[in-house]
Automatic annotation (TrEMBL):
Residues in ABC transporter domain copies: 48-284
GO MF annotation, one: ATP binding
Pfam families: ABC_tran
Record keywords: ATP-binding, Nucleotide-binding, Transport
Organism: Streptomyces plumbiresistens
Region (Disordered): 1-21
Protein name: Glycine betaine/L-proline ABC transporter ATP-binding protein
Gene3D superfamilies cross-referenced by the UniProt entry: P-loop containing nucleotide triphosphate hydrolases
Cited InterPro entries: AAA+_ATPase, ABC_osmolyte_uptake_ATP-bind, ABC_transporter-like_ATP-bd, ABC_transporter-like_CS, Gly-betaine_transp_ATP-bd, P-loop_NTPase
Length: 365
């Protein structure tokens, strides 16, 4: 799998959990499709190979005993190959697909116990979904498509149009608000889909492979748009993709799925530097490691012993940037945080990252 990444510096880390309940908290979640699905989770049937289970019971395990939290302000990416269970998992979060077993909370509230009205409220106000096929209404203008969710909420025409116009501007569609969807490019239509989800000001945005139908340049544009919006608003986002470079670019954390299970959940750096097993290792094999791994992982821990800290790199500096600095100065550089020297990087540590030697042993804090 070949991967290209931007040469942007390492992204700001996601906010640390504050002790507030996670936005989403998922424990031992299963989704089994088929007759009498509820007998499968946790039973011997669940251990059968997928083909055999299907033959003997007519059931398919799409999500298998999955647990994770999504924290406020985080971009959480669910990644995996086709059929690994990404869409099913994310649709279970708002019960667009009914989970078979497990617990599921949003802000500490039990989603599985919600009645129809509460669920509608959840989907409309709290967790809005942006789909790959944008589902725009063809006879409505851009503005009225964006205002659609507000109309459902019962907002009057002038208010909803004013609000929608603000969001249209935010996603860069100003001047196109009176066009109809057919008069827009695919990328512009996707922006309308994004604006429509943003207009209801949801606590969480759920993206289901929203950009996979777009050509690579427009796709890149939209990824940057999402990063920009996230920086501006700090909104919690859950993003499905099967594209590794998209996951690495967007995710604060990535859950990598295989056959319905999460095989590893961690920061892009953890996944690239410390793959949990051979499957993940193979998945990330072609990632340009120097653009994901930081000097915090690459450094030889322990202060330099001096006080002027030559080079003085922040711990989240990516190795690619550190290589340039060390190569220019011809000397080792210190990794410094709050005036304290955490360690030193030199040619040898930095080259080891590029070569994929040793960093799996290093701790990623
Ligand atoms: N309604 C359904 N009935 C039976 N099996 C289903 C149903 N929906 C999904 N599946 C199966 O569940 C598994 C996971 O599917 P899912 O669509 O969640 O995967 P995905 O990772 O999102 O794939 P893709 O990237 O192709 O969309 C697959 O084996 C799929 O065939």
């Amino acid at each position: 799998m070949s991967t290209t990444l931007s040469k942007e510096p390492a992204r700001e880390p996601a906010p640390e959990p504050t002790g507030a309940p996670p936005v989403f908290s998922i424990r031992n979640l299963w989704k089994v499709f088929g007759p009498k699905a509820e007998r499968v989770p946790g039973s011997e049937l669940a251990d059968l190979p997928a083909d055999e289970l299907r033959r003997s019971t007519g059931c398919t395990v799409a999500v298998r005993d999955v647990s994770f939290d999504v924290h406020k302000g985080e971009v959480f990416v669910v990644m995996g190959l086709s059929g690994s269970g990404k869409s099913t998992l994310v649709r279970c979060l708002t019960r667009l697909i009914e989970p078979t077993s497990g617990t599921l909370e949003i802000d500490g509230e039990d989603v599985r116990a919600m009645d129809k009205a509460r669920l509608r409220e959840l989907r409309r106000h709290r967790a809005a979904m942006v789909f790959q096929h944008f589902g725009l209404l063809p006879h409505r203008t851009v503005l009225d498509n964006v205002a659609y969710g507000l109309e459902i909420q019962g907002l009057g025409k002038p208010e909803r149009r004013a609000l929608a116009m603000k969001v249209v501007t935010k996603v860069g569609l100003e001047g196109m608000e009176h066009r109809r969807p057919a008069q827009l490019s695919g990328g512009q239509q996707q922006r309308v889909g994004l604006a429509r989800a943003l207009a209801v000001d949801p606590e969480v945005l759920l993206f289901d492979e929203p950009f996979s139908a777009l050509d690579p340049l427009i796709r890149r544009d939209m990824q940057e748009e999402v990063i920009r919006l996230h920086h501006e608003e700090g909104r919690t986002m859950i993003f499905i993709t099967h594209d590794l470079s998209e996951a690495l670019r967007l995710g604060d954390r990535i859950a990598l799925m295989r056959d319905g299970e999460i095989v590893q959940c961690g920061t892009p750096e953890e996944i690239v530097a410390q793959p949990a097993d051979d499957y993940v290792r193979d998945f990330v094999r072609d990632v340009p490691r120097e653009q994901v791994i930081t000097v915090r992982t690459a450094m030889r821990a322990g202060g330099c012993g001096g006080s002027d800290h030559p080079g003085s790199l922040a711990p989240d500096t990516i190795v690619a940037a550190a290589i340039e600095i060390v190569a220019r100065s011809g000397a080792a550089a210190c990794v410094v945080e709050d005036g304290e020297c955490l360690g030193v990087v030199d040619h040898e540590n930095l080259l080891a990252v590029v070569a994929g030697i040793g960093s799996e042993r290093a701790a990623v804090s």
